[in-house]
Amino acid sequence: MNESAAFLVELAAFAALCWWGLHEGGVLLAVVTPLAAVVVWGLFAAPRARFTLPLAAVLVVKAVILGAGAVALWPVGHPVWAIVLGVVVLVNTGLAQAGRNPTAGPAA
To answer: Do residues 3 and 101 make contact, with C-beta atoms less than 8 angstroms apart?
Structure first.
């Protein structure tokens, strides 16, 4: 169940980055910003990431990308939604790590 919520949180963060890019720099930034975040996510933070990092590094990547998604909502005029997404990111990531199998690799 939390995996589904985590996926929705990731999509929300990527959408927020897209919205910020469109608001701040137009279509090119709206495409490049979330695309860069998706690539970094796929390489380092996804459940089947290309490169295996220590858990602390995976959490840093997640914090930067998901946090950027939350912060991106502020300048587009939605500070309340920025705070809500930030809280959801923290709760979801905390639940994911609390339920993580200690013998498994870094996961969602």
So the answer is: no
Mind listing the pLDDT tens digit for each residue in 18-65?
999 999 999 999 999 999 999 999 999 999 999 999 999 999 999 999
The more confident residue out of 3 and 61 is 61
Q: Could you state, in order of their start, the residue ranges of all structural domains in the chain?
A: 2-97
d(CA 101, CA 17): 31
Which of these, 49, 38, 44, lies nearest to 14 by C-alpha position?
38
* Per-residue b or e along 59-76, where b marks 16 or more CB atoms closer than 10 Å to that residue's CB: bebbeebbebbbbbbbeb
Instruction: With 0.90 as the threshold, say if the pTM is over it.
Output: no
Can you say whether the dihedral through the CA atoms of 7, 60, 44, 40 is positive or negative? positive
- What is the Cα 51 distance to its own chain's centre? 17
